[in-house]
Structure formats: C-alpha cells, structure tokens
Amino acid sequence: MRSFASLAAISALASPAFAHTIFQELYVNGVDQGHLTGIRVPDYDGPIMDVTSNDIICNGGINPYHQPISQAVIPVPAGASVTAEWHHTLAGADPSDPADPVDPSHKGPVMAYLAKVNNATDLTVTGLKWFKIWEDGMDSNQVWGVDRMIANKGKVTFSIPQCIEAGQYLLRVEMIALHGASSYPGAQFYMECAQLQITGGGSTQPATVSFPGAYSGTDPGIKINIYQTLSSYTIPGPSVFSCDGSSAPAPSSSPSVPPAHSTTPVSTPSTPSTTPVSTPTNPPSGSVPHYGQCGGLTYTGPTACAAPYSCVVSNEYYSQCL
C-alpha cells in the first residue's frame, strides 16, 4: 500500500516551481524489484546543497530515511541492465502531478555510482570508495539528462560493468538540478542508494573517489549559469568507468530516450545579471518553505519566505528561500 501521510503533508507545501524528486524503484533486466525495495529513501524529497556534507553520500541526514529502512539486497548479475525510477513523492507515479517525476525547471545531469561494501545493509557510508558507471549531461541542443528522464516517465537505464568483482555494493543514483546554480550553494543534489548483491563478474577494481570530496562548489558543472547558450557542459565527478579501459561516458540504454553526453570543458559562464529580480505587483499571499522559489522574471507565486529563511537571488530568473 503506497500511503505516506507525512510526505504528503510536506509536499503539499511545495509548488511545481520547486518540486523535488526521489529515486525509489529499481528494475533488473526489465524486472521490477518492488516499490522502495532495497533502496534507502527519505521521507522528505528536499535537496542536499552542501557538497562537503556527509549527506551528499546517500542522503538520510537532514532528510531522514523512511522507516523501516528496507533490508532487502537486490541480486544483480554483472553486465545486467538496470533501470532507476524517480518520482516526486514516495507514492510513486502520479500522472495528475505536473511536477512528477520532477518539475521541468530542474535541468541538469543524472549519474550513477557504485561502491563495494562488506554489508549492503550497513548504514555507515562514510569512507566508501565510489566509481561512476553512467552519466547523462547536456547535448548540443541544450537538452539535459533530466529532460530525458522526464520524457521517459522518471526512468533512466544503464548497465552494471561486466568486469567488476562479485560482492555487495551500494548503487548511488544522483540528479543535480542547476536552475539556481549561478552561485554556490545553489545547485540542488538529489541522491539515494540501493543495496545490491552483484553476481558473476570478473576481478577488475576500478579507480575510485570519495564522497564528500569528489565535488567542489566551484566545479564548472556545479557553479554555472544555465540561462545562456552553453557550448558544452562538464559533468561533475570522475570519468565513467569502462571495462575496456576507456574513460568515455557510458551510453544510456533508455529505450525511448536518445542518449547524449558531453564531457568537453564548458566555457566560462558569463557573469549572472545583477538586475533586480522582478516580483509581482501584488504577490500572492502565503509563505514559501525552505528551498522554495520566491522570485524571478517569470515567477508569479508568493515572495515571502517562511521563518527563519530569506529570499536569495540566484539569477534574474530564480530566487530561492535559504
């Protein structure tokens, strides 16, 4: 039964302008493993914005995990195709929700990482070593990985490397929303971890990175003004691991969404406009919650932030309660 009253109450405060999202379902070779099965999901779908926080690893800190935390460990053959499914709330797909799986304003990349662990149900995640297995950034038509995820009804599909060692792993699937990223902190990070038992495989041990540590607030893919024509986009983090030794991004295998990636360094973004953000002459009543949008050239919602937050300008199109 998909009943999550506490999340529904929180989500009712949000508007589509700052809708959030949660990775909550995994498919292995097309087979659904079950809603919330084997995935550490938070009750609240808010972002992590501090790249130096331990919350950037698997979430679950300022956004506590939904209880009880699933103890399932999902069996996945090495080389298998896996699909991660995202939705706006833990209730799953909602065709009536314009922000499901996430509001279209939340443009940015989608990525997947693995970390080998002794026990996939152990909640201690600090000190783990991660390697990236897939990414989807921005293509030459300014279409983002998130755009493709939305077009595919919340699903992204990629492969588990055939050559890695068998054993238990955490799968970290992440989306970065860049609509407020022209200053730091501004980029919004959404991630959850799934518990896997990878079978078969080989003996390759990929090079790894640590979280926190893999990202910096000044990375060109994290501090960036997307309200301009970008010639390319640098996806944060390491290169995608490949069993053949190459570091080229792994292609997406989403059946209805064409893959597109770019790892060419992005040109230095132009300085964000300092023109004051316009607000409605008679702004609607009510207050905006933490991380909510409170201003922008095309914004028509409330402009007052709930205490103790203040409306902070990210760029002329987007201001946020921080």
UniProtKB/TrEMBL annotation:
One of its GO terms (cellular component) is extracellular region. Its EC number is 1.14.99.56. It is found in: Secreted. InterPro entries: AA9, AA9_LPMO, CBD, CBD_sf. It catalyses: [(1->4)-beta-D-glucosyl]n+m + reduced acceptor + O2 = 4-dehydro-beta-D-glucosyl-[(1->4)-beta-D-glucosyl]n-1 + [(1->4)-beta-D-glucosyl]m + acceptor + H2O. One of its GO terms (biological process) is cellulose catabolic process. Residues 1-19 form the signal peptide. One of its GO terms (molecular function) is cellulose binding. Residues 246-286 have a biased composition (Low complexity). Pfam families: AA9, CBM_1. Residues 286-322 form the CBM1 domain. Lytic polysaccharide monooxygenase (LMPO) that depolymerizes crystalline and amorphous polysaccharides via the oxidation of scissile alpha- or beta-(1-4)-glycosidic bonds, yielding C1 and/or C4 oxidation products. Catalysis by LPMOs requires the reduction of the active-site copper from Cu(II) to Cu(I) by a reducing agent and H(2)O(2) or O(2) as a cosubstrate. Has a modular structure: an endo-beta-1,4-glucanase catalytic module at the N-terminus, a linker rich in serines and threonines, and a C-terminal carbohydrate-binding module (CBM). This is AA9 family lytic polysaccharide monooxygenase.
